[in-house]
Amino acid sequence: MSTTLGVEEEFLLVDAETFRLAPSARRVVAALPAEVRPLIRLETRATQIESATSVHTELTELGSALSEVRATLDSAARSVGCRIMAAGGCILRDGDEFPLADERYAQIARRFGYLEDARGLCACQVHVGVPDRRVAVAALNHIRVWLPVVQALGCNSPFVNGLETGYASTRATLLSAWPTVRPSPLLRSLEHHDELVADLRAAGAMLDHQMLYWHARISAVHPTIEVRCADACLTVRETVLLAALVRALVTTAVRAVENGVSAPLVDEGTLTAAHWRAAKDGLEGQGFDILERAEVPMWHLVDRLVEHVGDALAEANDLNTVHATLECLRKVGSGAARQRRAAHRNPTELAPTASAVDVAALHDTPAIGVITDGPDLVAVARAVIAETTGDLY
Prior knowledge:
This protein has helices spanning 25-31, 59-79, 103-112, 133-143, 147-153, 170-175, 190-202, 236-258, 268-281, 298-308, 310-315, 319-332, 335-344, 356-364, 375-388; strands at 5-15, 40-42, 48-52, 82-85, 123-129, 159-160, 163-164, 216-218, 224-231, 286-289, 294-297. By secondary structure, it is of the alpha+beta class.
């Protein structure tokens, strides 16, 4: 039987006509069917909302659940004059101050000051069942070296607050200022893990265990490893791809732990640099090969990741799904590349079936910081909304 998994997706709520942030989360939740509400949570601000799937073992079931929740959420949003948007950050400039969702988030804002402004960002988080916490801690040491590749596959925030930032994942870059947003350290044991968490709380770097924002962590509320380094994915198909790869990565790591295989001894600083490069270039650019200590095309690292977890993908019957979605992404580009195409290209000039070379060219020449809420960014917002409840080309 396949290892269990589940997914959390965060969405922005935007006005259906202006595409600017809409503080309507509670109204959207109230408009949902009663049976769906347990799957929906309020996020940091009233302009965000989060869905969480139930536990699944099959990708087809997971994909159907994600599609159904997105469609239901968007229907409820439409009923109160807004839409859901699957992007790492707010695309259009918006200077309004929106209310925090609850007292816990207000307490976080008081403790961390201006950093709280960087929380109006949206991620995709994948949970994989690992009930033994000691095994889970050891598995974190194995998966950490591959997470920059997972992050690159999920880059989907080149525009934030009315600007093209020059980063494929601006969300990751902004969040890196938080004291616990970083790669998980090399962990000697479960006791070492718990000591580090206690120290972070004692130092005031987190209010509670839920604020342990390592790129991969032991979940605070579920018997899972939670990988949380990717932006919110434009389409369900991309979310399912991440879920498949993360599950296979965790399965491969757990097997290595059980077989007594040592984890790669990679310094946290090196991993931080690799994550920065993934956020900067995304899927279409260069990545840092941590094990070979060399700059290589990110797609080369994606191929390496698939090879690394190939046995686990095959055993879960996920290999064909992963290959098919990756082949599609080679043609149409990542979420970040598709956003840039919507802003800078006439649709007839660069068709969705453009080659990977054509898509990569978009990455090479971003007009950093020059777009400010003009019709180009409206086109981006419209395209993102369409893909949120649609599919890859």
